């Protein structure tokens, strides 16, 4: 697929803004987690997102085939309830700065996904970047204070965040495939709608009804921001940008998320990152940048449906 220069620039800007806003998601989520469970926080986040996307649902018909609906349902299950419940359960057990830095592994996970599922082969630079990123993640996870709660990082929380990124890989690939034939608006709005319905079916029976009266104004504002800015806006911008730039090159822009998230955790929430964690974060970001700009490996643009 050829990309026009102006289209590429606009696409990169859209992906960069989306990644930066995603970086605020852990920050807003941590504020809400002080007053409710991770499952209720995720449910509210997507309900607010659907308020923002409701006009698009009213003005855009899906036009998907039966098989494409199956792909979208699968992508929605993976990308919304499964990914976010694991991710924010992990956040409830660790710090914003740790969780954000672990997200720096995502570009490398995308490359590994291409190797495994698209039968691509990474060059030596790619494998070195993968080794560096893995080392960095291990340094973050093992170099902090591993106690859940009390504002401390935990190994379990860090690993759950990484596991959620592996799930997100398939969400990205399935959405990319659907956008070869359908608009980013349709894929985003209807995909998030399906995921929100799944949360409504799953969360109240297992975790009880979400709190309402005892939630502070600050938490409501954080939930609204996480839903409107960090979910609806980011997914629209990212999906739109992915139709204008190669996924392999856009991957480096995901590095904005751990950068913004970790800075918010340290300078706003007062979290502490030791020298080992800072070094690990630098390794992850450096590896992701190297992989997406220097390695000859490229993530395939779409995933076939069987």
In short, what is this structure?
By secondary structure, the protein is mainly alpha-helical.
Please describe the structure with a list of short key phrases separated by commas or semicolons.
single chain; 306 residues; mainly alpha; disordered C terminus
Written overview of the protein:
The protein has 306 residues and is an all-alpha fold. Helix content is 74%, strand content 0%. Helix 1 (5-22) runs antiparallel to helix 10 (217-242). The chain is built from 13 helices and no strands. It has one domain.
Topology:
Blueprint: H1 5-22, H2 25-33, H3 38-59, H4 66-93, H5 96-102, H6 106-117, H7 124-143, H8 155-178, H9 184-207, H10 217-242, H11 247-250, H12 256-267, H13 275-293
Helix pairs in contact: 1-10, 1-12, 2-10, 3-4, 3-9, 3-10, 4-8, 4-9, 5-12, 6-8, 6-13, 7-13, 9-10
